């Protein structure tokens, strides 16, 4: 699947299209260079799921928990950018989140590749020279 975001003006439509194609998948690993728009797109997805919480990158906390009014259950947003060793991920109890049955959105999953569940959906965000973004999964 490929979604193109032409500008921030249509990011909500792109997020809704992404949600319409989730299927039964729960774990989404977002790959992309720094500044590609991973956090911005995850924020748009959470807004489309009617999350009232402030949605920010959990760079220092590693994981943020949001409540979706639409789903009635938590959504977990991870940022593994600052992970230095896998022990940090074990210590935070990642399995409790990944196998909770709730949506999990992971930024910088390449840093914990060995711990990703087999059914994790790899989502690649590419920033193009013209300012558009491609979301492929």
UniProtKB/TrEMBL annotation:
Signal peptide: none
Main location: cytoplasm
Keywords from the UniProt entry: ATP-binding, Cytoplasm, Magnesium, Metal-binding, Nucleotide-binding, tRNA processing
InterPro entries hit by this protein: P-loop_NTPase, T6A_TsaE
Compartment annotation: Cytoplasm
GO molecular function: ATP binding; metal ion binding
SUPFAM superfamilies the UniProt entry points to: P-loop containing nucleoside triphosphate hydrolases
Coiled coil segments of this chain: none
Protein name (database record): tRNA threonylcarbamoyladenosine biosynthesis protein TsaE
Lineage of producing organism: Bacteria, Pseudomonadati, Bacteroidota, Bacteroidia, Bacteroidales
């Amino acid at each position: 699947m490929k979604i193109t975001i032409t500008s921030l003006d249509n990011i909500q439509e792109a997020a809704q299209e992404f949600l319409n194609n989730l299927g039964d998948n729960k774990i989404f690993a977002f790959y992309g260079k720094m500044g590609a728009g991973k956090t911005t797109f995850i924020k748009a997805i959470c807004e489309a799921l009617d999350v009232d919480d402030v949605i920010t990158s959990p760079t220092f906390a590693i994981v943020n928990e949001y409540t979706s009014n639409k789903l009635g259950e938590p959504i977990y947003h991870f940022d593994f950018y600052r992970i230095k060793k896998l022990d940090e991920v074990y210590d935070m109890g990642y399995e409790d989140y990944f196998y909770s049955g709730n949506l999990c959105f992971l930024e910088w999953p390449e840093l914990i590749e060995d711990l990703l569940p087999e059914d994790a959906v790899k989502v690649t965000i590419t920033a193009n020279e013209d300012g558009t973004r491609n979301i492929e999964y």
